[in-house]
Each structure stands twice: as C-alpha cells, then as structure tokens.
Design a protein that fits this description.
This is HDOD domain-containing protein. InterPro entries: HD/PDEase_dom, HDOD, RNase_Y/CdgJ. Pfam families: HDOD. It is built from 20 helices and five strands. It is 57% helix and 5% strand. The protein has a five-stranded parallel sheet, with helices on both faces. Helix 2 links the parallel strand 3 and strand 4. The protein has two domains: 117 residues, 3-Layer(aba) Sandwich (Rossmann fold), CATH 3.40.50; 189 residues, Hypothetical protein af1432 (Orthogonal Bundle). Helix 9 crosses helix 10, helix 14 packs across helix 15 and helix 16 packs antiparallel against helix 17.
Length: 405
C-alpha cells in the first residue's frame, strides 16, 4: 500500500454518528477530532501546520461542506478531502467546488492516500514562494467580481432558483448581453433553440453553468489585449478555448460521466490558457522573448516559459483560479493540461478531457509560427488505461476541425 510521508500532518475530523474512523498506520503524523469547532481550533493553532484535512460524515454533509468552505478561505493551502455517501445533486455539486477529492465511505486506503498525495502535489506546486512572488509581481491579476460573490452566496441556498440568479446578473446589462450571445451561439449546440431572456437561459442550462460563463467573460474582459502585444491574438485564443471547452465536455459525455464532471471539463477548457493572457500583459518583453526562443529551439512554449520566466502559463492560470476559489479539480486540470503524466492520476478526470481536446484540435499559432496548443501524451493515456479511447476521440476532433474550416 502507498503511504503518506511522515512529514505531512493529517487532521481527521469525524462527524459521523455511527462508525468511527479506522486506524491508519501509514499516517505517522495525524490527529483525530469529532466536531468542526475543535478541528478549526487545531488548524488555527500556531504550534501545528497541518497539510491535509479529511472530513468524514454520514448525515451532516451540509455542515461538512460549510466547514470545508471556511477552511478553504482561512487556510487555503490545506488539502481538503471529504468522505460521505448519499449526497443530493446540490450538495454533490457544492462538494466538488471545495474538496480536492470526495470519496465514498467504502473507499480503500490506497484511494485515500492517492487523493492526499494528489492534492498535496498541486498545493506544493502552487505554493512555491518563487512562483508566487513572480506572479504577484506581474501586477495585473484581475479582481474577483462582486456579482460572482453574490452568485456564490445565492447558490449556497437551497431556495435559489433561476429568477433569483437572473435578478443578480441583470445588474450588469453588458454581461447579460454577452451571456445570451454565448448561449445562443454554436458553443452549446442547442439546435434552433434561441433564448431571449436570461431567466430562460438559466432554467435551460443550469445556474452553475451560467455562473461559469460569467466568470469566463469577466476574465477575458479584464485581460483584454493592448496595442503593444502582437505575439498572438487574444480573441483567437478565446475562440479556440471555447472549442476546446466544448470538445472536452463532449469527451466526458461520450464516456458517460455525469453533469458535474462535464461542467468541470467545460470550465477548465474555457480557462486552460488564461495564464497566457496574464503573462502577455504582465511581462510582455520577457514573454515575447520566450516565444521567440521556443520557435528557435523547436520546443513547446510552456517548456521555454519555465526557463525564461520561472513560471508556465499553466501554473500562472492555475494560481489565479485557486486565489478565486475555483474547484480544485478545475485548478488541477489547468495546472497539468500540458504535462498530465506529472499529475499522478491513475484514472479519467476532467484533466484527461482538457488535455486530449487541447492536443487533438487544430492549434493556434503565434506571430512567430510557434504552436500554442498541446502535445498528446500517450504515456499518460496508457497510465490511466484510456489509450483505447483515442481513435474515437480523434474522429471527434476531425469532425470539429472540419466544421471550423
């Protein structure tokens, strides 16, 4: 069995009313508590520096998720694992937004250890002091919009419906127009269905999908191209990201994955290259040099980004999305979309869909003629036992590419 390194501190918070936690001899540094107040006190104790929080519950899922939200806000570097069964659709959706991984109560020890290791790897990469210092030095990170704060608060309530969401968004008529334009485009492939009111669009597509579109539009509006940057077209990057997003969601749908996974893949696809815009605006001279060097060396841009800047666009984008409290699964997909084999994943995740979509679709080229798309990792597909699906994905990509012409 795999084990968690002894240097990691793991806090177990057991909210179950029946069976108590099993012993985990693989965890050398652990502590167990039985309510959220005690767990928060332990996390807040300066004598300890817990890396991982595991919350187990049987009937108090709402309390557990609210606690994980609080931990995410006040201790953002802590890996959050939720163990629970029988969550309704709303709770399951909320859980994916705050937990690095959700497991059923019949999990194996290996599954829990793998979940911890996966979350720790992501947090260690994004928590690197040099990376943080560089990204913060760029000075142009978009602020989190107030409308999304209001949406998040509304979506946390069981009583929120399409009418309430529409009323929040209608405070920004420009955003409403953008959202209606997107939902009526080929992006959602809804046939002849046209939406003339935001409430109708929310009812059809779902409140969280609309929230994702608001987030994406805000980011691309905040990171608009200036006249000094001519390395690549921001608009073309946005358009390609929409196609990657659509393809990634289609891959998940083809595989029979639920709406939550499809939604995660769709949003990660929309935002997978958002870090390119941050770098192009915040460090133009060096980023232009990185792209020139990539062309000269015949190397992928993300490889040379790391050498020249100390950060890749994937790391930069993932860092921004984590500071905005996006789902850890989306952050994970953005962070590893060029190097999925480094993720340590052993099965299909939204990362798989985004990596495949980005790699198989026609790439965007920068002004130097350098490919900005991904390179397919067959080793990764072999590692997660999905290489057999590649021919069908290639056919899907061919059909999409044909329609793009």
């Amino acid at each position: 069995m795999n084990s968690v390194p002894d240097e990691l501190l793991v806090l177990f918070c057991d909210l179950s009313t029946t069976e108590r936690y099993r012993d985990f001899p693989a965890y050398g540094n652990q502590r167990q508590v039985f309510n959220t107040d005690e767990a928060f006190q332990v996390l807040d104790d300066d004598r300890f520096d817990f890396n991982v929080l595991v919350v187990r519950t049987d009937s108090r899922q709402g309390e557990a998720i609210d606690f994980l939200c609080r931990v995410r806000s006040e201790f953002p570097g802590v890996v959050r694992i939720l163990i629970s069964d029988a969550m309704n659709a709303q709770l399951a959706s909320r859980a994916t937004e705050v937990a690095h991984r959700s497991l059923k109560s019949d999990y194996t020890d290996d599954q829990l250890v793998a979940s911890i290791q996966r979350g720790v790897k992501t947090e260690q990469l994004l928590g690197d002091p040099k990376l943080r210092q560089y990204i913060l030095s760029l000075g142009n990170l978009p602020s989190f919009p107030q409308v999304l704060n209001e949406l998040n608060q509304a979506l946390a309530k069981d009583t929120t419906g399409a009418r309430e969401v529409s009323m929040i968004l209608e405070k920004d008529p420009t955003m409403v127009a953008k959202i209606l334009q997107m939902v009526n485009s080929s992006f959602f492939n809804l046939g002849n269905a046209n939406f003339y009111s935001l409430k109708e669009a929310v009812s059809r597509l779902g409140m969280r999908t609309i929230k994702d579109l608001v987030l994406t539009e805000h980011l691309f509006q905040s990171l608009s191209q200036n006249e000094r940057w001519r390395g690549f077209s921001f608009q073309q990057l946005h358009e390609r990201s929409m196609i990657v997003s659509q393809f990634a969601a289609g891959i998940c749908r083809l595989g029979g994955y639920d709406n939550i996974v499809q939604g995660q893949a769709r949003l990660a696809g929309l935002l997978h290259d958002i870090g390119m815009l941050v770098l192009a605006l915040g460090d133009q001279e060096k980023y232009h040099h990185a792209m020139v060097r990539a062309q000269e060396l015949g190397q992928p841009v993300y490889v040379v980004e790391k050498l020249v800047l100390g950060s890749t666009h994937a790391q930069t984008g993932a860092y921004l999305l984590e500071t905005w409290n996006l789902s850890p699964e989306i952050v994970h997909a953005v962070l590893f979309h060029h190097v999925p084999v480094a993720s340590g994943d052993k099965h299909f995740t939204p990362l798989t869909a985004v990596h495949v979509a980005d790699s198989l679709l026609p790439p965007l080229f920068n002004a130097m003629g350098c490919n900005l798309g991904g390179r397919l990792s067959r080793d990764y597909l072999r590692e997660i036992d999905m290489l057999h699906a590649l021919p069908e994905w290639e056919m899907m990509a061919h059909d999409i590419a044909y329609k793009m012409k």
